[in-house]
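PT: before anyone asks, these are the final sequences, not the draft ones from last week. 648 residues across everything. Please model them as a single complex and drop the result in this thread when it's through.
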Amino acid sequence: MSRFSEIIESISFAYKSIVANKLRSLLATLGIVIGISAVTLMQTAIEGINRAFESSISSIGADLLYVQKFEWFGNEDWSVYRNRKDIDFRQFNFLKKNLQSAVGMSASIGSPQTLKYRDLMLQNVLVYGTDAEYQFVTGSNMESGRFFTTREATGGYPVCVIGMDIKEAFFPNSDPLEKNIKIANQTYRIIGVLEKQGSMLGLFSLDNQVLIPIERYIQYISGWNTSLSITVKAANVDKLEETKDEIISIMRKVRKVPYGERNDFGVNQQELFKSTYDQLTSLIKIIGTLITLMALIVGSIGIANIMFVSVKERTKEIGVRKALGAKRSSILMQFLIESSVVCLLGGFIGLLISFPVSLIIDALVLPTVMPIWVIVLALFISLLFGVLAGFFPALKASKLDPVDSLRYE
Amino acid sequence: MSSLIELKDIVKLYIMGAEQLYALNGVSLGIDRNEYVAIMGPSGSGKSTLMNIIGCLDTPTSGEYLLNGRNVSEMEDDELADIRNKEIGFVFQTFNLLPRINALYNVELPLIYSGIPKSKRIEMAEQALVSVGLADRMLHKPNELSGGQRQRVAIARALVNNPSIILADEPTGNLDTKTGDEIMMLLSDLHEKGNTIILVTHEEDIANHADRIIKIRDGVIDEDCASVKSVKSSTGTSE
Ligand SMILES: Nc1ncnc2c1ncn2[C@@H]1O[C@H](COP(=O)(O)OP(=O)(O)O)[C@@H](O)[C@H]1O
Ligand SMILES: [Mg+2]
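LR: through. Structure below.
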């Protein structure tokens, strides 16, 4: 109880001495300001990436395998990949006939194309040719209308299923179904709209796409990409590895890969994506933590320095306080509180800087919010470093001899 | 017969390199409750050293100091701080007010260290300031006050915790004669109200405000006698 008055008095006195030395206090907090900005922005960025990743990952599907010409995260020399054969329908059909452990399989091929509706135009829309099984395999839901049938797909009918971005651009206030749009200058009838899927890591939209029958795509649209991508749905996530092994052995057979040679195709899965993502976030964490630590250490050395100066300047004050009955612990506490208040101030300024920056990141780079726990953590770290930085100066102050300090001028 | 202050053979030795300096060299004295004592002597004679020991700011190299019957010379730092807080009120030559806070807050300081709650503290501090005649200056900062007013604030601060002793080290040293006289009047008032006052000075005139004068020279007591004032008043009554 008796300590309570002292704590209050120390805080109000700390406030007075900060106000009396505004510029100096501000400079002293610079390192803490930078450190706190860094730590909060880092956490905000990671939070944003996490959110984006979670929404992206759900649209990729954990039970899917992608048989493609290239690995997603290959790290061999380009010469290894250059001469790979395309994946064609013969291979797709062979795989479909022989693969036992999968529950579904769909082939697709796509490229960016220009879309037109009346006098409106959209460029760089991803146009995929695919089959009727696509909807089941990827688990896509329809916002309205229907997906195309096997007959439409194999017959190359001029029908299409559009993503939400296309609907919003071309038909903001009307029903797109049964309307005709032009894809690469060919007319297609809209038969369905896909549900909104969001964006991949906040970087590009997954709704900026159009699906057309694969036969049609191959006949009329020949983009730069000529190799099929085969999406395989495993029975469940636990069966993923088994299905993967089976796919590899079938694909090696159909592509005539000699025994002992490496695969000349990729069987990609979300896991790979996840591990790359984990590497990315841990890299951000390491760099962010290093910057933060460096700034905080430099910052607290700065604060310790200022506190030593402050103790020296206020030697007489310390003597007077001791003469009036301040114990060592009272003086120690007073200076600890003072350095904590200075550091907390730095923490607040850091938050004042990083919060608007996080809003800018949210608006321009990827959707994110600064989590409350980060704010609490930031203030806790400031307090901690305040106590650490203030400890030795405060100890020195508390040990001053009252007679000597009263004589100090 | 225990006195308020009982000093027995107090020695304070300073060692600076090869040199030894006895600031106090065997001082023994007793001071009773409600005495008004002046410690006098030339500069460097050991007055402040003696006062610092009496005020528990400093500890003797050897000797025994009993304050209110308690052996102070064997106490730890924190116990001494507590004694200073509750038993001693200091008045310094240079006032030693904290510059950034107002008069009231300065007077509150000793009460903060005794853990007295805010409202009680303000009441006591205001009362002390009123008693030194500063009712209308409570919210002024030290630099907004004259020297005499600052010393009054310091006296209020010394009084506020109802200490057993008020120790004043050259309280008029930084004041002009007139203001100095006013401060001495204030100290005499306090003495009349029952306070024990120990005054350190090198000026005969100032020392004569006290009832008893202890003269020291080179760290030893030279003379311990009644002051001119008290001699006059006692001879005056006997005539
Ligand atoms: N901390 C110290 N270190 C060394 N010598 C000191 C110290 N304090 C006081 N002295 C010496 O002790 C003697 C008495 O000092 P002091 O009590 O301050 O004298 P006064 O107050 O009578 O002028 C002086 O010679 C002074 O130089
Ligand atoms: Mg002196």
